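The records we work with from here on pair a chain with its fold. Taken together, the tokens spell out the fold as the letters spell out the chain. The record below shows the convention in full.
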Amino acid sequence: MRVLIVEDDEVVQGVLSAYLAHYGSDHGETMDIQVLSSAQQALSLLLEQDDACDVIFLDVRLPEIGGDDLYSQLMVEKPDVLG
């Protein structure tokens, strides 16, 4: 499973990545985890690559563009990513 974590707090990034990797290994699932620290990076990735990830963990409070704003932009520009 391809997982995208969009989170600016490095501690939360590490905890969530470790949890997902552990969960995957316990359930026979390989986790390909990508971590980005800004919504702008995530928006660029998701607009460029249709199949960038299977699931997104998105922080609501991010610098510059909040997670809720990123979600709204994706609903307009690339709704199939959220489907």
Observations:
- The CA atoms of residues 39 and 70 lie 6 Å apart.
- Residues 10-26 form the longest helix (17 residues).
